[in-house]
Amino acid sequence: MRAVPRLLLTLLWLAVLVAAIAWIGRHLELSGDLRRFMPSPRTPAQKLLIDELGEGPGARLLLVALGGDSPEALAQRSGRMQARLRDSGLFAVVANGDERGLDAVPERLRPYRYLLSDTVDGHGFDRHLLADALDQRVQDLGSPAAELVEPLLASDPTLEALKLVEAWQPANAPHKRGGVWFDRDGREALMLLETHAAGFDPSGQQAAMAAIRDAFAHSREAGDGDARLTVTGPGAFSEQIGGRTRREASLFGSLGGAGFALMLLLAYRRWQAPLLAALPVASAGVLGLAAVAVLFADDGVHGITLAFGFTLIGIAADYPIHLFSHLRPGVSPGESAWLMWRTLATGVASTCLAYLTFFVSGVDGLRQLAVFTVVGLATAALTTRFLLPALLAPARDDIAGRESMRRLHAAIERLPRLAAPVVLGIAAAAVAVVVFVPGTFWQNDLARLTPVPADALARDTQLREALGAPDVRYLIVIEGDDLEDVLARSERLRPLLDALRASHVLAGYDMAARYLPSAATQRARQARLPDRPALRAEMAAALTGTPFRADAFDAFIDDVQRARQAPPLRLDDLAGTPLEATLAGLLLVGDGRATALVSLSGLADPNVVAQVARANGAQLLDLKRTSESLVAEYRARVLWALALAVLLLAGGVYAMLRDLRRTICVLAPMLVATALVLAVLRGLGVELNLFHLVALMLAAGLGLDYALFFDHAGADAAEQRRTLHAVIVCAVSTLLVFALLALSQIPVLRAIGVTVALGVLFNVLLALLIARRPAVAA
Question: Which UniProt keywords apply (predicted)?
Answer without folding.
Answer: Cell membrane, Membrane, Transmembrane, Transmembrane helix
